[in-house]
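User: My collaborator and I are trying to settle a disagreement about how two of our proteins should look. Neither of us wants to argue from intuition anymore, so we agreed to look at predicted structures for both before our next call. Could you fold the first one, then the second, and keep them clearly separated?

Assistant: That sounds like a sensible way to settle it. I'll keep them separate. The first protein:
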Amino acid sequence: MQNLQSLITATSLISVDGLITDKHTGEIHGYDSNTSVFAGTIKNQCELGKCRSVDDFHNYLTFADRRKLPPHELHSLQDEVNYAHGQWRKLRMDYRITLPQQRLLEKLHSLVLYRNVIFMTQADLAGELGTAESNLMKKLRVLMDANMLKVRTSRDGIRTGEIVLIINPRLVFRGSDNAQARYIREWYRPASGLNCDASDNIAIAA
């Protein structure tokens, strides 16, 4: 093999995809020890908005360096709870986050791996929330009706038996402040119906 490598530099032989080949005649003289650029499986990052299963989402996360994310704490949620309560006391406009809503949001907060989305099987999510799978949608309805949560299931193209939760980014968000601000703008944008982050080239249909 070493002799073949020497011949490459001394003659008209070239290495093409692991084969030592004469560039003039096309004659194959042997095999190159270098790894082919075509070897192995090439993985491409799917846009977050195009993830349709737990597997798609975990594949997406392999491209995201979550070590660089800020600490995932409950500050945003608690701030919103306090702000809504203050508005109620000051203006008598009742936008309060009830205790059941807050407790459910705290549970969902612990399940968020990235941004404001959760991809799980319906059975696993029901187990995490301490309810029967048949009652899962009813339990989530308390947040959905208050514009705190959007849910996607097989009716929306998600793999059968799995569920996607998209939480209002003002309440729960795992990412930078700048990314959170973009998500919040898109959440409340009436015309777009999208929660997106152009820097990550993602969009979650609302």
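The second protein, kept apart from the first:
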Amino acid sequence: MSKRIMVDMSATLIHHGHIRLLKKAAEYGAVIVGLTSDDEILSKKGYQPELSFCYRKEVLESIRYVAEVVATPWLIDDRVLEKHKIDLLVHGHDNSNLIDKTKLLTFPRTEGVSSTDVRQSAMRSITQINNQKLMLTPGPAVVLHENLENLKPLFGRGDDEYSSMSESVMEWIKILSGQDKIIMQQGSSTLALELAAHSFVKGKVLIVSTGYYSDRLNRLLPKGCKVTICDYENINEIADQFDWVLCAYTETSTAFKVDLQAIKNIANSVGALLYVDATGSIGLEDNHHLADVMAFSSCKGLFGLTGASFIAHKANLSPQPSQLFYFNMETQENKMVTGPYHAVASLYGVMKNHGELRQRVINSKERVMKNWSNLTRDEKNQPLLCTYIEGKVNPLDKDIVLYSPRSELTGSVICHFGEIHSNEVKIDTRIEIIAC
């Protein structure tokens, strides 16, 4: 008479590890699967299984190595074995069932696969499906599975998990910024830029003009500043003394990157501190340490979700006091209002893969520069985030969103975040450029 071999499992998501275990068990006798109920999975694992008990049972019964499927509790004991006349219990090496050891046979788990791994793969597949639309915009152009894997209930006080996430993210961003201090708040980079301007900038101000976003800095300044606006190509003609020099490192509206070292040299020569709009450059470009104050957001070169913005500055600078409550760096630094909890969680997921994601931006940039080299600028002022094309972008399928820059241009701006969810660059097969 064939021995009766029980394999206990939840089988919430059947994978090849389960099949291999069942195959091994079948070498010892007739396999009886002890299948955990829906309620027990919910109680012990904290979630409702993807397939209910009856469907999991149906799937298992269709496997040739399985003779029978019976309902069993989460933990198998000798009474369960006696009830079903089981000779041996087969389990992975992580067995925690309290049974007579002479009736237990364990095998190593199949490496590289688990139900959790399958769920992560499913999340990656879902995000890839949702990212079929090609966004040629500055961001967020995709939603990454790394953005989603840590989204859960989070809170800024008394939540140790969030505190750990937040500390890691803030330290990472501080290193990227090259600054001594950093604060975050809920909102766009515009909020951070205006708050930073009102907290630090005063006196005579020189704004280096490269397009819409540099020029709008004038509107974000506190009252009383004496402002001079100078086109980027004329900065070497500046001779007056200033208290602050302001610039946008990457000017998204014109796809133009300033030479930040040259700007810093100018600031030093006119006796000024340097304020940088790093919205389009953080996480992508180098030399952010040259700034004295900078501001940026979570959803461009940091590859996070929208909702978090940051101000970073040198330790020798102290923000000016404010009578306002919300629009106040002290309020934000002391976390006296709701913070960008889920944007921070999305960045926590990105941190470990940020280098790979940045390289995908570079790959897209290089593909565009190679295919339309006759329509692009030279490399001197090329930002990684975007490329200016002296031509009109014509989409070749309906799932493409073009970027409409806020500056008036004869050509077009293409941003390079739209394919960072994949190693494959297809941008040149999905658009064509019609020269102006």
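Some points you might bring to the call about the second protein. The chain has a mean pLDDT of 95. The chain has three domains: 4-113, 126-141+354-435, 145-352.
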